[in-house]
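Progress report, Aim 2. The chain analyzed during this reporting quarter is listed below.
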Amino acid sequence: MESLSQIELMSKSNNTHKNLELVVTDSIVGDTLYRGIGYDGEDSIYYWGESSCVGKYSLSSGKVTGVYATSKNMGTGVLVGKENLFHFGSGAGSIFNFKTNNTSDWTVLHNIKNTMEAATSVWDGGEYIYFIGGRDNFTKYITNIWRFSTKTFKMKTVGHLPSARWYTSAVWDNAQRNLYVFGGFNGTYIDEILKFTPSNGKMEVLDVKLPFPLRFSCSVWNGEFAYIIGGWGLQSYPKPNQVIRFHPATQEIQEIPVKDFPSSIIQHQCVFVKKSNRIYIFGGVSEAGRCYNVMHIDC
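Predicted structure tokens for the chain:
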């Protein structure tokens, strides 16, 4: 049985009204603190982090299974294609790869100087993964944007954030070939939306800002909009128990209040599934406690 909560979306630009739904499923994940996620384009979503194994969720059956007993309790990661998980950092200063079609453990592809604690990773749909900011050796916030080749296993710095930060979230606009980076923290909560163009290395701080400074959020891209989900804000701002929708083409921000949505949820992972036009949410910790049920939102 699935329980439904209503989400009301009120557009600031044209007063149009649309009802969406949050669905809390009966599917239970093994832990709630996750660092990486990816959809294989078919039936499986993989997620991993501070748990005993890489998790696999079947869209068709709703079943959750463990792929392999392993743990990556820091850093950040993405799924590339159908079977290659890449994880950056994990406090070990390395880039790891795990193939979902065999039973081998993570293998080290590249050693890096930075621990990459709480960085953000985004796949461009092709050869490259970008990972953004973070904190080095648990003390120094990072400004770097790196590009890692999934073919050569080499990486290089391709840009810099306007200021060092960690706990951002980000999406990749495949049509425009741009990165959008949201919020973060560097001793101060950040409300900036950044646009980075890898082809020329241009970094822009957009005029439009998040409704409030935010860190620990999770973001997905549906081909037109970025959805920024959950996170922590300052006490003087509304608690981010809502979804924020950003439209790059018009630079519009829409706040979507969510009835009964886990208030101030953090350490969760989100992924967009195009064929169902649905955002899936895995794990997390909210003010009410740990979130073990798989949730989704129909866009």
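Residues 1-17 have pLDDT under 50 and may be disordered. Residues 3-298 form a domain with the Neuraminidase fold (CATH 2.120.10.80). These observations will guide the mutagenesis work planned for the next reporting period.
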